[in-house]
Input
Amino acid sequence: MKIAVGLSGGVDSSVAAFLLKQQGHDVIAVFMQNWHDVTGTLHGDCEWEEDRSVAQMVAKKIGIPFVFVDLSKEYSKRVVDYMFDEYSKGRTPNPDVLCNREIKFDAFLKVALETGAEYVATGHYCRKETITDESGKEIHRLLAGVDGNKDQSYFLCQLTQEQLSKSLFPIGDLAKPEVRRIAREAGLPSAEKKDSQGICFVGKVDLPVFLQQKLKPVTGKVIEIPADSEIYKRTDKFDNIHSQLISESKPFWYEPDSGKVAGSHQGAQFYTIGQRKGLNIGGHIEPLFVISTDVNRNLIFVGEGQNHPGLYRKALFIDAKEIHWVRPDLAIKAGDERRVLARIRYRQPLQAASLYMYEEGVYISFDEPQRGITAGQFAAWYSDDELIGSGVISG
Output
């Protein structure tokens, strides 16, 4: 079987390629360059060139062909432009999820298939299982990786059945220490390489500097909201669950006079819910956290302490057009509800919740209030250890 491996120069994809070669497959290594601009990056100007060099050495060590592809135009248009647009609206996108949906398992997949490959493989810590339904149709299940500390199924929450049908995840049954051990014993040049950080293919960045390529800084006020504010003393009574979900999923609304001016900032679009660093405001016993941003009024609202009530909400809403089912056969219809496990960010422990489907979209009501629900991020829901659906949080 001919398999194209997305070889990044990291240890995970290196071991994925090594294992497939050991299994007797016809393996080719494909290195993707997706970003050229170094504005705002913190790891130097030529990080991608170093990654390519390591990837070439890995391919040579394993004994597989090495192919270089430049997908930077697609990445800029389909991931980075989306990022800038979302931040300009005061939303916080997840470029890693978009990168997987739009680049690794779309643009890269097409390139790989054009080389004659039957499948693409990556170093993601997740698993795929294929089953057959009563009609004989194949259904591909996206399962969490065995290593709970490294499970990356969340990053693949937007994949389709067609994309999964052509995808392999060779290290999904392994723990990270085992992957490192295999790399060392095989003498792979990436064995001790540190895990990548930051934005997919861009790296670790100074986000305000990175965003200022297109978003102009504008000075505004930082307003501190006290934890005992009347805003949090909701006493609403609801006639039905729908009304309750609408209320519980709405972000808190603050006026400029809801608190006191605590400082200034250079643009509300550069901040996100739950952010602590970058505020540069002293004089508090506990750290300040961003609890709300308003790009239209260029205001940031903050609260003192990680348990501030402004950081927590019981429910979230996903617009109907933003709902994606990895398992379309398990989709629920308007008026239906389902118990699930859900998360709103990578590495968050799965949370018990209920899905409530309506014509306008789906509400996720958590058993316990969740910290830092953020518009633009992805919520993903699971049945046991299978990721079955996801969507972009609307508010």
Observations:
- The chain has two domains: 2-211, 216-395.
- The mean pLDDT is 92.
- Residues 2-211 form a domain with the Rossmann fold fold (CATH 3.40.50.620).
- Residues 95-114 form the longest helix (20 residues).
